[in-house]
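STRUCTURE:
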């Protein structure tokens, strides 16, 4: 018997060489006394393409790593495979194109202790290649922060999160495979946990970084991403987890917000950053409308690689 606390870090991957730097950053974690880190890598490719890379980096860095092949092209399958192998007292989530500073896990654990939280979210901060537009850098449109309303975090994501394992095991909850190609599976997952009373907080000091490749440093990519996020919000509304919803009323509300955003776009003619802000807001609200009216979600996973 031991009083050692195990933190299982779950990393889902799909054909990304950047996994190597993600794993190296996990090997550098300076965790609190009597805490230990183990990593689960779930490979969502058709073939076990990440196995050799994951095992090589684990041997190079002395990382306690378990690899699992969890095909194919459905991120929920990979997430659920990682959950089943994660035996820690805490489960952490990070993406395969992100890197964590050495104090990342310590900051998440400290926030959980300080706030008495079951779920802790940290920010994801973008790192741009040379040539990315200045308006994009200034607007921080690729950064990920939690949604906070009236001082409360109201939604979660898996790109930088810590979760108390006991509440997950008590709930018997997994990621929905029906959302595993469109995305939004993590939003639905955390929405269910929060709806069941899980306590959630934000730790701004527990940041991870994410490189933005050239193909993502485009307005078109951002518009598609916001539209899909709106579709996820529409799906959550249809689930009714936040109380009864009038579909027609929500459609009217989202259309009104899209109209306000369009007006903001017109009034921001001389500011590229503000124009992008309002255009992206409009795309988000139109995504909500599309899902409320029954349009299928845009597929993100299982093509040439994940967008998320």
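SEQUENCE:
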């Amino acid at each position: 018997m031991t009083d050692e606390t195990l933190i299982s870090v779950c990393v889902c991957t799909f054909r990304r060489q950047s996994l190597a730097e993600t794993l190296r950053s996990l090997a550098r974690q300076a965790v609190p006394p009597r805490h230990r880190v183990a990593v689960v890598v779930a490979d969502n490719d058709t073939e076990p393409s990440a196995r050799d890379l994951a095992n090589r980096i684990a041997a190079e860095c002395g990382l306690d790593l378990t690899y699992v092949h969890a095909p194919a092209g459905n991120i929920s399958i990979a997430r659920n495979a990682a959950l089943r192998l994660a035996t820690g007292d805490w489960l952490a989530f990070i993406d395969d194109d992100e890197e964590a500073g050495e104090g990342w896990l310590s900051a998440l654990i400290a926030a959980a202790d300080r706030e008495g939280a079951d779920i802790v979210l940290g920010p994801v901060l973008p790192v741009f290649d040379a040539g990315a537009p200045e308006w994009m850098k200034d607007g921080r449109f690729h950064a990920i922060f939690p949604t906070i309303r009236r001082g409360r975090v109201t939604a979660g994501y898996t790109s930088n999160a810590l979760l108390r394992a006991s509440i997950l095991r008590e709930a018997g909850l997994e990621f929905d495979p029906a959302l595993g190609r469109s995305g939004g599976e993590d939003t639905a997952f955390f929405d269910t946990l929060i709806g069941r009373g899980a306590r959630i907080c934000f730790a701004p000091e527990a940041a991870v970084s994410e490189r933005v490749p050239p193909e993502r440093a485009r307005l078109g990519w951002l518009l598609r991403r916001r539209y899909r996020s709106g579709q996820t919000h529409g799906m959550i509304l249809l689930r009714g987890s936040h109380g009864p919803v009038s579909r027609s009323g929500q459609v009217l509300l989202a259309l009104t917000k899209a109209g306000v955003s369009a007006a903001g776009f017109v009034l921001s003619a001389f500011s590229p950053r503000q124009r992008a802000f309002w255009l992206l807001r409009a795309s988000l609200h139109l995504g909500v409308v599309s899902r409320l009216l029954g349009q299928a979600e845009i597929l993100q996973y299982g093509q040439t690689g994940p967008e998320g």
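REMARK: The chain is about 40% helix and 20% strand.
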